[in-house]
């Protein structure tokens, strides 16, 4: 089967995890049986996002808290002061095995980390975290829209493949899909071990002293220059700029320094889609995180809920030759501190990005700001993958929700871009953007009013929409033609369709398919299969 298959549900009202309203979050959704990585890439580039097998797209001009898809250009990524502090703190911890003195008494660390985007709310000036537990309840996994409890038809892929052999072969030849992909059963999946990290260099007490001495020297020099009437500021900036360029440490530099003498060893291991399974360690970690960080109801914390949100994924595991060594699909990054699992990053590796799905960690190690550290690791992963696949250069953090101040931290990974909810173009997140969003929570973002969605779906595109109906895939046009032949089967279908409409409240399937076409865009509507009941 070479098709993405979705059961579309239309508009849903649900509880909002950001403003805590009961029914004010409005989104469109669909259940995805299977999704090709390039199709999911296109969907997230149109404002969709997945939670387990459920894909949803917030209706930004109507919903209480507009959600703007946010991505960071990993190849242009600039570490800020706070990131560097976190990286150095981890290095010191691994080297000495001790918490920093000022962190012993620190509060909960980066508890406000948003699970969805795997980032952290840390003030530039307060990188020890120090956000309270109350803020932590924002953005947890339970705050995402849930799949409505509507009947999902069972789909037998073998039956469909057999019934559509000819088309199946045709699709395999299609250049739109990977021509050399390997299906889910991949032999010898490589567990790509990343680096252990620890650094002998940089920020300890003696370094602080050196810094002071340097500052004193610089001040003396400036005083001398000033005495000679030379403009101090220009002179200073050009000198310090040069120094910065030559000394700038990259993310990889921070992660690469490891020493055998380190007290602890941190290993970040990439687990491929076919090797992921719920273990006691992963479940206990998830449970502890959900309970302590998101005040979750213990009764809801079962291995099956973990599996539903963090393991199940419609994204098909594919390994095209031109793609990353470990392929595309839904992976986990496990963080092992010596022999203890302390964090798990749930990520999708797609043709243009690594997309963060969820991140959970052991709250006992929140002094290490694991949420932010995890984001930096994921950016590093993008940087590594981009060496082989240059198009894969973005880090998707999920949604930027400006109307919820606790969810604004995602914009701190720079440079970041927001997706225009109308034209589906990307726009650099600047202070000007923030100012506009302060004025009005819904913004088009693309200031050119002529700019339109290039995948704009018109009614005339309806006839070519691909449907999966009665185990066959066919265009909407063919489906309508088949209905005109009055057979008992068709009459039964009509009755079945009427019952479906009663359940879903939809007046007309035709309108529903048009709505779906507009949300997924023309190309995807003509490529993916819409499950017609
Ligand atoms: Zn809301």
Q: Could you describe the 3D structure shown?
A:
This protein is an alpha+beta fold. It has two domains: 5-77 and 135-195 and 264-439, no CATH class; 459-531, no CATH class. It contains 17 helices and 16 strands. The strands form two sheets. A nine-stranded mixed β-sheet has the order 6-7-8-9-10-11-5-12-13, sandwiched between helices. β10 (353-361), α12 (370-388) and β11 form a beta-alpha-beta unit. It is globular. The protein starts with a strand and ends with a strand. Residues 104-136, 173-211 and 231-237 have low confidence and may be disordered. Zinc ion (ZN) is lined by residues 16, 18-19, 21, 24-25, 64-65. InterPro entries: Acyl_CoA_acyltransferase (IPR016181), Arg-tRNA-P_Trfase_1_euk (IPR017137), N-end_Aminoacyl_Trfase (IPR030700), N-end_Aminoacyl_Trfase_C (IPR007472), N-end_Aminoacyl_Trfase_N (IPR007471).
Overall, the morphology is: globular
**Annotation field: number of helices:** 17
Number of strands: 16
Structural class: alpha+beta
What small-molecule ligands were found? zinc ion
Helix content: 25-40%
Q: Mind describing the biggest β-sheet?
A: 9 strands, mixed
The poorly predicted ranges are: 104-136, 173-211, 231-237
Q: Give the overall pLDDT as a whole number.
A: 82
Query: What is the count of structural domains?
Result: 2
* Strand numbers in spatial order across the main sheet: 6-7-8-9-10-11-5-12-13
Distance between the termini: 20 Å
């Amino acid at each position: 089967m070479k098709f993405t298959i979705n059961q579309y549900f239309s508009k849903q009202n649900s509880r909002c995890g950001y403003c805590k309203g009961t029914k004010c979050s409005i989104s469109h959704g669909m259940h995805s049986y299977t999704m090709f990585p390039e199709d999911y890439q296109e969907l997230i580039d149109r404002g969709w996002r997945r939670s387990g097998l459920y894909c949803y797209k917030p209706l930004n001009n109507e919903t209480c808290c507009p959600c703007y898809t946010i991505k960071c250009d990993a190849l242009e990524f600039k570490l800020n002061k706070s990131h560097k502090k976190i990286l150095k703190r981890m290095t010191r911890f691994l080297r000495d095995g001790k918490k920093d003195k000022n962190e012993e008494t620190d509060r909960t660390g980066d508890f406000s980390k948003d699970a969805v985007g795997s980032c952290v709310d840390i003030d530039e000036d307060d990188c020890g975290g120090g956000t309270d537990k109350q803020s932590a309840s924002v953005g947890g996994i339970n705050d995402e829209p849930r799949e409505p409890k509507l009947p999902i038809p069972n789909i037998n892929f073998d039956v469909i493949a057999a019934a559509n052999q000819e088309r199946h072969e045709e699709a395999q030849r299609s250049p739109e899909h990977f021509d050399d992909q390997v299906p889910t059963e991949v032999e010898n999946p490589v567990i790509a071990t990343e680096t252990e990290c620890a650094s002998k260099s940089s920020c300890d007490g003696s370094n602080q002293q050196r810094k002071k001495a340097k500052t004193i020297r610089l001040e003396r020099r400036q005083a001398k220059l000033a005495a000679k009437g030379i403009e101090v500021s220009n002179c200073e900036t050009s000198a310090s700029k040069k120094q910065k360029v030559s000394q700038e440490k990259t993310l990889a530099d921070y992660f690469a320094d490891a020493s055998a003498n380190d007290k602890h060893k941190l290993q970040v291991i990439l687990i491929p889609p076919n090797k992921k399974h719920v273990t006691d360690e992963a479940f206990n970690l998830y449970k502890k995180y959900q309970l302590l960080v998101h005040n979750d109801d213990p009764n809801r914390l079962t291995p099956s809920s973990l599996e539903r949100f963090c393991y199940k994924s419609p994204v098909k595991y594919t390994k095209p030759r031109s793609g990353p060594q470990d392929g595309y699909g839904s992976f986990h990054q496990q963080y092992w501190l010596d022999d203890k699992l302390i964090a798990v990053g749930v990520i999708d590796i797609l043709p243009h990005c690594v997309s963060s799905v969820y991140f959970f960690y052991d709250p006992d190690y929140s002094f290490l700001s694991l949420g932010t550290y995890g984001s930096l690791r994921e950016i590093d992963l993008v940087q590594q993958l981009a060496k082989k696949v240059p198009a894969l250069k973005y880090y998707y953090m999920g949604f930027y929700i400006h109307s919820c101040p606790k969810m604004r931290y995602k914009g701190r990974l720079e440079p970041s871009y927001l997706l225009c909810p109308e034209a589906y173009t990307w726009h650099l997140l600047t202070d000007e953007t923030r100012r506009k969003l302060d004025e009005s929570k819904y913004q088009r973002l693309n200031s050119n009013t002529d700019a339109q969605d290039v995948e704009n779906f018109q009614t005339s595109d309806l006839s070519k929409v691909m449907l999966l109906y009665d185990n066959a895939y066919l265009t909407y046009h063919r489906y309508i033609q088949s209905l005109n032949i009055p057979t008992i089967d068709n009459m039964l279908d009509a009755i079945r369709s009427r019952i479906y409409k009663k359940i879903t409240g939809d007046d007309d399937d035709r309108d529903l398919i048009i709505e779906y076409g507009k949300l997924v865009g023309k190309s995807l509507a003509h490529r993916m299969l819409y499950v017609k009941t």
